[in-house]
Design a protein that fits this description.
There is one protein chain. It contains six helices and ten strands. By secondary structure, the chain is of the alpha/beta class. It folds into two domains: about 140 residues, P-loop containing nucleotide triphosphate hydrolases (Rossmann fold), CATH 3.40.50.300; about 60 residues. It has a six-stranded mixed beta sheet, sandwiched between helices. A four-stranded antiparallel beta sheet has the order 2-1-4-5, with helices on one face. It is globular and about 50 Å long. The protein starts with a strand and ends with a strand. The model has no long low-confidence stretch (mean pLDDT about 90). This is Hemin import ATP-binding protein HmuV. Pfam families: ABC_tran. Keywords: ATP-binding, Cell inner membrane, Cell membrane, Membrane, Nucleotide-binding, Translocase, Transport. It comes from Maritalea myrionectae. Belongs to the ABC transporter superfamily.
């Protein structure tokens, strides 16, 4: 279980104080909604290690994550955009997430990108680029997946396909997943449970 207990943070003396507590089971997708500026991305940045909490704990099955630098945390992140190196091929992008440069083609096949291995990512559509990023995430197979508005830049049909693919992979891999989105369709169709964020704290819906 991913457990976040009284994780506190503020950007300064006059800024709001955040106090986050939540739990995510293996194979669960926890959806978090909230107004712009409510702290959704701040929460993900704290979990990933881009920001350092002033107090509190982050544990995964009793392993302490808060003291670890970002690169040592067992976390993958899928953002709204800029998830791939556009000057590299799809294959090379996936290989960046692997300990050994093998198996990238099979991972791309799992996200329905057969035949695109040698394609330069700058020439791919937004949905195809997200699939490349998801293939890299699949290759890394880290137990925590953070989704920060991952489908916002996609058309409706592509977003529907990506939601279905993410749901299948989370169930299959038993990833502990947190989805942040202001799109209600993302939350209702993908999240197994939802919380709302307001006034620096999470609230059950």
């Amino acid at each position: 279980m991913l457990n976040i207990n009284q994780l506190q943070f503020s950007y300064g003396p006059q800024a709001p104080q955040y106090d986050f507590s939540l739990q995510v089971e293996a194979g669960e997708i926890l959806g978090i909604s909230g107004k712009s500026g409510s702290g959704k991305s701040t929460l993900l940045d704290l979990i990933a290690g881009f920001l350092r909490a002033q107090s509190g704990r982050i544990t995964l099955d009793d392993q302490e994550l808060a003291p670890l630098p970002t690169e040592q945390r067992p976390i993958s992140i899928l953002f709204q955009k800029d998830n791939v190196f556009e000057h590299l091929t799809a294959q090379k992008n996936v290989e960046l997430g692997l300990d050994e440069p093998k198996g990238a083609d099979a991972l791309l096949a799992q996200v329905d990108l057969n035949g695109f291995e040698k394609s330069i990512c700058a020439e791919l559509s937004g949905g195809q680029q997200q699939r490349v990023a998801l293939a890299r995430t699949l290759g890394r197979d880290r137990p925590i997946l953070l989704l920060d508005e991952p489908f916002s830049a996609l058309d409706d049909q592509t977003a529907d396909e990506m939601r279905q693919l993410v749901r299948q992979l989370v169930t299959q891999k038993k990833w502990h997943t947190i989805l942040v989105s202001h799109h209600q369709k993302d939350l209702t169709e993908l999240a197994t449970r939802q919380l709302s964020l307001s006034r620096g704290k999470l609230h059950a819906l």
